[in-house]
Amino acid sequence: MLIKEARKLLDDFYYKKEHLPEEEKLFVEAVKFLIDRENKPLDMMNLGSFYYDKKEYGSALKYYEMAAAMKYVPAYEMLAAIWYYGKTGTTDYIKAKEYFTWLKDRGNKAAAEMLDEIDKKELA
Question: What is the distance between the alpha carbons of residues 23 and 19, in angstroms, rounded to a whole number?
Fold first, then answer.
């Protein structure tokens, strides 16, 4: 597969609203190929979001964490939400606070509000 072909597969995938299982498989292969070749956090987010939408939160975490390691802000937002809302089956306010704090320190007002919410829940 070439990078150009992989990008075309992604464009085609996003253009359609519903996908056959083999189209989903090709999408995942194409995004993994792009991550391997180009190492772009947007591709990591795309794959994480694909898994998130499928409620495969463990796989989503993997790719969001990869993007967060590159200081990609949307990845921090998703990771904070996953831990705050317990999408993996476990609510983890400590992890959520880490991600929300990182966001707050960069001027994210919603993250500051979420930190206040966590503090209220911990005090209750």
Answer: 6
pTM of the model: 0.91
Task: Determine contact, residues 35/23, Cβ cutoff 8 Å.
Answer: no
The residue assigned the tokens 């993007």 is 67
- Does an H or E element contain 116, and which? helix 109-123
CB-based burial label for 6 (10 Å; 0-12, 13-18, 19+): buried
The residue type found at 100 is: F
What's the DSSP call for residue 91?
-
**AA identity, residue 102:** W
What are 105-123's pLDDT values in tens digits?
999 999 999 999 999 888 7
